[in-house]
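So, can you check this record?

>
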Amino acid sequence: MEGQVLDVTRYYAGASLMLPELILGFGAAILLVFEAFAKETKSIRRPAMFAAVLLAGALAASILVSGERATLFSGMVVVDPFVDFFRVFACVAGLLGVLISLRSDEIEAATGGEYYSMFIALVLGMMLMGSASDLAMMFIAVELVSLMSYVLAGFRKHDRKGAEAALKYVIYGGAASGVMVFGFSLLYGITGHTQLSLINQEVMRFASEAALVSLSDLTKTASMPPALTAGMILAFAGFAYKIAAVPLHMWSPDVYEGAPTPFTAFLSTGPKAAGFAVLLRFFVVGFSDQASFANNLLVDISTLPWLVLVIVVSIATMTLGNLAAIGQSNIKRFLAYSSIAHAGYALIGLAAFSRTGAASVLLYMAVYLVMNIGSFFVVIWVREKTGSELIDDYKGMGTRNPFVCVVLTLCFVSLTGLPPLAGFIAKYKLFAAALERAFDFEPLARCAPDVVANMGMVAKANCALSGSGLFYALGIAAVVNSAISLYYYFRVVRKMFLEKPDDPTPIPTDGLAKAVLIPVTALLLFFGLFPDSLDRATVAAIEFKRPTMAEIEKMPTPSMPAEAKTDAEGEDAQASAE
């Protein structure tokens, strides 16, 4: 159109709020190109330092743009307190991942540039998983994290175990992604939207119609369309794969054992937390009442008992992970099953489906990051000194280097959930969220004491597990599993301190080990004794932006000079008159 001026800058309005993601995206590309043409080096320190600078810059940018609330790119992503928290988490996790990789000899200097560029891209995907507010963007973010993880899991050349692990990861991951996107397609088909807040409006409409039907005919029970329930189940299955929840955990032990140990440490914390972030936003924004956060919507009118499903998955995940860890001989497989168990604990917060429950998940992931990074750093350190990843080779290590073994013991005590360390506070918050949710349930009329007395065994069991009984059962299962974990964690501690080493030669502690393990110990103690600051941060983060239709449809349009606009309006008026 002659006389029309395109205001390009309007298309990028608000892009400054994506500054952390832009830093990582452009930085990963620059690092990849730079390392391709730079002079070869025998050390991985150069790309590692470049990656650390990028992550530090993204962390500073995350803090700089925090406090904003915005809808960007037609509702594909949002900026809110939840995103602020998770950006900081992703950058800190990335920095710790880079730091512990400096200890490992499993990453070759010749391929260090490729490793760290893909590592930065993975952190970028984690950030996008936290901010995605649209099903399409969620899928893209999940796949970005998955694709980078597939490559990094099998990054070591000529390593059959790593290649096998990567192949299993790709096969399972591809199947899980297909299931998830099929669930997304069902949700789109039944609601007509991919934006979570608009899906929520349709869900509320279905709920109102179902309630009216139930009131008009008491013989009918309120229910959602079956396709909606099926879509939610399939989407939940895809997310469950990302957090290694039972029964979609099969890939985890083999991948954790076969991948480079620094990446295993990061994989067990960063992407798992990102999976919980996208899971929380999906359910809270898409399927809860904005006013009350959760009003038993998924319990009362869905054709599937959602609380039962999530609670059963939580109990099965923590139980299988803990029981399977008991018989492991490889320390990385041991920590892999431990990671599965901790995914089960974190699912308690999702099952509670409340503000307290969601905040407890974030708190648990933050503390778990510190505990697991400390544990894996010691695993890398021991592997470097002894050349072994077997638990039997830890015997007597406490006499050869007491400092490192005491830190590993503190990490295991925190993972168990014993006071006064941060792991105790993290588990306490999860258990408290479950009990708080149990108190919210009113006794069902059909489960009144005088009615229960005349019921059969099946009906009595159903009443016992309905409502509050489910959460009491979940709390009891979590406490029992924590006791089981105490046994297998201290099996390693016993070997370190109560058995004699084959080689009693002392092993000195180098500067890098002190630089990592002393802060880990300090953080576990500090947040165990003074958890208020972290608790307030996680509670404040549970504020989800729900874009309105007006914000989503607000598209930039080409601007025209006033004269051209007047002429165009005159031509339109003349055409209408004719």
Observations:
- Confidence is low (pLDDT under 50) at residues 295-303, 556-570, 572-578.
- The first strand starts at residue 70 and ends at 72.
- The longest helix spans residues 160-191.
